[in-house]
Each structure stands twice: as structure tokens, then as C-alpha cells.
Fold this sequence. Notes:
Blueprint: H1 2-41, E1 51-59, E2 64-67, E3 72-74, E4 82-88, H2 95-110, E5 116-122, H3 130-140, E6 145-148, H4 151-161, E7 165-168, E8 175-178, E9 182-185, E10 190-195, H5 210-225
Parallel strand pairs: 4-5, 5-6
Antiparallel strand pairs: 1-10, 2-3, 2-6, 4-9, 7-8, 9-10
Helix pairs in contact: 2-5
Amino acid sequence: xxxxxxxxxxxxxxxxxxxxxxxxxxxxxxxxxxxxxxYSLQDTELDLATSFVFPIAKPLAPFSLxxxxxxxxxxxxxxxxxxxxxxxxxxxxxxxxxxxxKLTAAYxxxxxxxxxxxxxxxxxxxxxxxxxxxxxxxxFNPEFIAITGEHAQLFPLTRDLGFVYAMVGExxxxxxxxxxxxxxxxxxxxxxxxxKPKSSTPGKLPQILNKNLIADIRTIIANYKExxxx
Length: 230
């Protein structure tokens, strides 16, 4: 009986050690995967001038809007290319036309290293009709995409992108306060980075300089390609 108990104890100990070894192996594998993800996307690993990179890229929730040509624009249209989002409205007196002008100037450089689309997300559906969005894009750059929808569709997407907006004033001449940042989305539909306006001089309006925008996007895209998951 004593011998049988010793044999059983040894067998039980072996199973416990085997189980612990399995757990340790899983933990090590998870650690390796986590470290790999953070290494390729962590902000502190990159030399960026005006951007914040999310430690782990997150997929955008499903959305469905309409572009300036009357076509549906969903998550599917983000596949296989980089997307640079910013929000605004065509009646915007300052930030939007300035941003559109800067992006038009920067666009050829942005295309040198990646297939990238610029997406203007209008948060003023009451005034920004399809025709108005089409004219706005044609004026700045016909290759840019303008999309909009009802506020019930816009609020979740803008929040998901890290943007905010609010209607200010009454009547037909109301204004729309909105974020001036941009969001960079990867070809697999993940939110990778936020590009934020900065001011190097106290009292000066924060802005995104084109040289910083171009350099940051190049760095982020090059780094994202090194992600071992892709």
C-alpha cells in the first residue's frame, strides 16, 4: 500500500509540474506577443514631432456614412490603404480651409511612401449636402473623400476616432466647434495615431506643421510595417 501511495504521489507531482510548465509557457508566449505589439507601436519608441501613437492599435467600430458622390462609405473603404481623418464643415471660417490647404500641399509627399487617402468627415449634415461636399473637395483636391451622415451616425464615429464637436449658436449662421486633430487609420482598419496641433510660441495658435505631419506619418507607417503580427 505504501508503495502504491508513493507511485501515486510521484504521478500527481508530475502532472502538477507539467501543468505549471504549460502555464509558464502560455504566460511567456503572451508576454512575447504583448511586448512585440508594444514595441512596434509604443509612442516612446518613435521620434515624433506632433503625434501620439496608441500603444495597441484598436479597430474602429462599424459605421456607415455617405461620400460626396453619393456612395456608401463604411469600414470596407478603409481596407488595404492608410486613411487620414479630420473633422469639420464647409462653412468653417478658418481651421477647415487652412487644414484642407495644408493637406493639399502635403498630399504628394504623403503618397511617396504609402497608399493613403484623406477623409474629410463633415459634422454639419444639415448644411453640407452631397453637392456642397463635392464642390468643396473639387476646390481643394478631387482625390480627397468627404463623408457625412446623421448625427446619430456621426457621434459614435467621431468619439471612436478621438474627436469631439458641438453646435454653437442658433439660426442658419450657427458655428460648429470641433477638434483640430487628425486620426491615422491603418490598412487593417485600426486606429493607430492621433496627430495633434502644437504651438512652440506662447500665445500663438496651435497648428500642425506640414513638415511634422509628413515626417510623423512616414515614421509611424514604417514602424507599423515592422509589427510581427502583420
